[in-house]
Amino acid sequence: MPFDKNSSITALSHPNKAFVIYWGNQNDTLRIPTRSSLSATLQGINHPLDYIISIRTAGSSERDKVIIDGTENKGEIYSHFVNHLNAMRRYTRFREKLEVTTRTSFPIGSGLAGSAASASALAEAFAGLIGKSGDTRLKSILARKGSGSASRSVFGGFVIWQKGNSDESSYSKQLFDENHWDIRNVIAMVSSSPKKIRSIEGMKLSKKTCPEHFYSDFVNIANHHINKITKALLARDIGTLGALYEKENYLFRQVCLKTTPSLDYWTKVTENILDKVANLRNDGIPAYAGTDAGPNVHIFTMPKHVERVIRTVRDVRGVLDIIHCKVGEGSHLIQDDLI
Ligand code: PMV
User: Fold this and answer.
1) 293 lines ligand 1 (CB under 6 A)
2) Residue 21 C-alpha to ligand 1 middle, in angstroms?
3) What is the pLDDT of residues 271-302, one digit of tens each?
């Protein structure tokens, strides 16, 4: 379908949580990772976690325009979007300047960066504009250019990002769709402050400064974890999945702490929540906790245990909010035009 120069196109996307974590690149310019990763795409149940982006060509304008929740942005967010647009234009040889309008239902000040959701929504809308909506591989490559984990949010369900070794071979694929297995993710929100060191900078530091065997062991174990987790997903085995999820998180934490300067993304509240989750397991509740590059805690559990998990972590001092998610759908175009 050729693009219509005058009309806008709108996409919606969601975040995802990695079981096997992406942290570092073979090639920073192209964002080709050192290890493959595996995640579940997350859709909010008690609170929507939607990122919506409309784009249209900016007519004769010589610059892109970015409007965030009704206000034109000319700062850091603008630069981030323009860098992503430039990378997508280079890859597809599309030339036009664009007007980008965004709306998010992520809790304001939640500390949930939503970079996976925003970059995959932008890639989805961009692909729609150039008539390539059906090309999931292209969409994943385009999303990767804005944020690594965004390459996975193009798909719903359980998703693998195969690291590849070139721009064309580094993209994600769906392993199982969102209806394969109803597991839940309870996010305990701990902080509303921006990260001291952004992921993209943190992972560069880890690769550069971590003692050699630490980082290479972390890289080398990824495929083994991916194989085992894929089997656990196929068998719908929460115990095996959860144990591997926590092991990956432990390794990731060690890599962060062995980085110079040390990347300690946790707070005391994070640790208290992790203790509570370990206690729940001692009581026979299958609940497994991990973090991203930040203090918020993602707890995977089964639907019938969600209430107990929420009750347990809600009362930890310092928990700001709880978001209950199911395994959700990937990025897609919608009719709701923001422009
Ligand atoms: O997606 P990026 O480029 O912002 O990197 C973030 C990576 C982590 O969220 C920390 C881990 C992951 O695999 O999602």
Assistant:
1) yes
2) 7
3) 999 999 999 999 999 999 999 999 999 999 99
